[in-house]
Design a protein that fits this description.
By secondary structure, the chain is of the alpha+beta class. About 30% of the residues lie in helices and about 35% in strands. It has helices spanning about 5-10, 65-80, 120-130, 145-155, 160-170, and strands at about 15, 20-35, 40-50, 55-65, 80-85, 95-100, 100-110, 115, 135-140. The longest helix has 14 residues, at about 65-80.
């Protein structure tokens, strides 16, 4: 498992020149396979892409070269962009979501609170454009499962108007 230094983390957050999207490398994993001639290295990369205005996506890719894994992950992330429902600068309501072993609890916060969350969840919320929110991660510390749980929570959020219209349809 490759650890990133602070300098690497700052460099991994970059602005994409063509579309105004921000791109960040959330996690890199190095795998090695022992073969007849020695060790064969491969890499997997978890990439986050967002515009800071409500659209965010992630991509997970594997390749024999690190740069190829990052490039492929970025392309996948751009294809999987989703629009996040927000209420002002925060999320509309509380949400608890489980994905495999990871559990994420997201809750709205008053204006001026900022983002109180762990590293993976914080990055997703920043790239989505959410400014005031509290989040807590329970269970697994696996980066991919935390990202998927956070996306599942954000995509299942509904505005007050959506809930009221669904209630009217039922009656």
């Amino acid at each position: 498992m490759a650890k990133q230094t602070e300098k690497d983390k700052e460099n991994s957050k970059r602005e994409s020149s063509n579309s105004g999207l921000m791109e960040k490398v959330l996690y890199i994993n190095r795998c090695s396979k022992t073969i007849k001639g020695g060790r064969k290295m491969s890499f997997s990369a978890l990439i986050l892409v967002g515009d800071g205005k409500g659209q965010v996506g992630y991509g997970f890719a594997k390749a024999n070269e690190l740069t190829d894994a990052i490039r492929k992950g970025g392309e996948i992330a751009r294809k999987n962009m989703h629009t996040i429902v927000m209420e002002g600068t925060t999320v509309p309501h509380d949400m608890i979501v489980k994905w495999d072993g990871a559990t994420i609890y997201i809750r709205p916060a008053p204006q001026g609170t900022g983002i109180i969350a762990g590293s993976k969840t914080r990055a997703i919320l920043e790239f989505a454009g959410v400014k005031d929110v509290m989040a807590k991660s329970y269970g697994s510390s696996n980066a991919i499962n935390q990202v998927r749980a956070t996306f599942k929570a954000l995509l299942s959020m509904k505005t007050r108007e959506q809930v009221m219209s669904q209630r009217k349809e039922i009656q």
